[in-house]
Fold this sequence. Notes:
Layout: H1 6-14, E1 34-42, E2 54-63, E3 76-78, H2 81-86, E4 110-114, E5 119-124
Antiparallel strand pairs: 1-2, 2-5, 3-4, 4-5
Amino acid sequence: ASRMTDLQILDRLLTKYDRRATPSNHWNNATVVDCELYIRSFGSINPYSMDYDVDLYLRQTWVDQRLNHADIDQPLDLNDPNLVKAIWKPEVYFPNAKNAEFQFVTVPNVLVRINPEGKILYMLR
Length: 125
């Protein structure tokens, strides 16, 4: 049997994929998501309002066995916004933020990488 192309793999994985269900939903467990923040810049603090601006990268990783496929032997990067929308992603919020926005140039500044064995990297700025 010949090896499937990346697009064929993605098509097969997403055929019955439900992005509304968490990766561990069928086990009735919470999905463990590791989060990392990389601060690019930290603006000056307004001493009156205590407001400040931060430019950061948010990296999140988790395992989604629904996106595990035997033919994935190297990372698969999803750069099509429709493919990025098709998979489950955690909802992140900053409880004390007065305002937050994701960088959007011509397309959202995000990276979704499917690694072998269903480990997902989701990075946004």
